[in-house]
Design goal:
The chain is an alpha/beta fold and about 260 residues long. It has eight helices and seven strands; from the N terminus they run H-H-H-H-E-E-H-E-E-H-E-H-H-E-E. The N and C termini lie far apart (about 70 Å).
Length: about 260
């Protein structure tokens, strides 16, 4: 009995310590984003790594993508303003309107999906777990889309840098927003898109031209300005018919890459 109580006490103490460490970690995340001096940024990064080594949910941070994005799940909803999301959604719909009636796959959905009826695929369990129907962008304002009444959320936890757990030739459209700059093996991801898309199916990739903040740059694999070229080259090599549109919204520049499987 005595032993069980001590064990319980130690577990509770450990949880308190981890909670405190997580708060400290979040404060350092803010500091890192505000800091402009590279040496000070490195110092903060080292301190964050030291905290991460002692907190079970942060083991592997920042280079383990699943750990990184699970940690981000709590903050992500506030990172992109709603007016940008609405703009992006409108643009996506104009690009996939004709091809996509039923089977749409959203890659790297995070916890704020653009398309209500899509299958949400993400590496992060916590992102997928915190998708809420009421927080979705109101697709009905823009288009009377099929499936609006259907509130079932479809989720797949998977890594786009590996084979997707989806059959060949069965998807009408794929959407990937603010994902590709974090993907090392873009060629694998796009080859998988080619495999799962039906003939004439379309992929719409959305990327910002702006640099990400200091915190997200820890995991970024391709800077925004090079990414469009990389994507276009791989899509063309795979045999997609590709179209690139660059749009300005307020002070941001957003790139829409649409590619059709021919
Ligand atoms: C910057 S967030 C964008 C989220 C969402 N698309 C949006 O526009 O709000 C990147 C998302 O991609 C997911 N992700 C990152 N690497 C991934 C991978 N290798 N496979 C699947 N999802 C990944 C992350 O978990 C995260 O939810």
């Amino acid at each position: 009995m005595q032993q069980t109580n001590t064990l319980r006490k130690n577990t509770v103490m450990k949880l308190f310590d981890e909670d405190r460490a997580l708060d400290e970690f979040d404060q350092k995340m803010d500091l890192l984003n505000k800091e402009t001096d590279i040496n000070k940024q490195l110092q903060i990064f080292k301190e964050m790594q030291a905290i991460a080594n002692n907190v079970s949910v942060l083991k592997g941070w920042p280079y383990n993508a699943r750990v990184f994005w699970d940690k981000e799940a709590f903050f992500w909803k506030q990172r992109v303003e709603q007016r940008y999301r609405e703009f992006i959604l409108k643009e996506i719909i104009t690009r996939i309107n004709e091809s996509a009636k039923r089977s749409i796959l959203e890659l790297g959905t995070g916890n704020t999906p653009y398309l209500k009826e899509a299958i949400n695929l993400d590496i992060s369990h916590d992102m997928l777990a915190t998708i809420g129907v009421s927080e979705r962008v109101e697709i009905a304002k823009i288009d009377n889309h099929d499936g609006y009444e259907n509130n079932t959320i479809k989720r797949i936890q998977a890594n786009v840098e590996h084979s997707l757990p989806i059959k060949d030739n069965c998807v009408d459209a794929i959407v990937a927003v603010f994902l590709c700059n974090y993907i090392e093996r873009i060629d694998v991801m796009l080859a998988e898109c080619m495999r799962v898309l039906k003939d004439e199916g379309k992929i719409v990739i959305v990327q910002s031209f702006a640099e990400v903040d200091n915190y997200h740059s820890l995991l970024e694999k391709h800077p925004a300005k090079e990414l469009t070229l990389i994507l276009r080259t791989i899509l063309n090599e795979l045999g997609f018919k590709t179209q690139i549109d660059v749009k300005d919204v307020d002070k941001k520049t957003i790139v829409f890459i649409s590619a059709t499987k021919s």
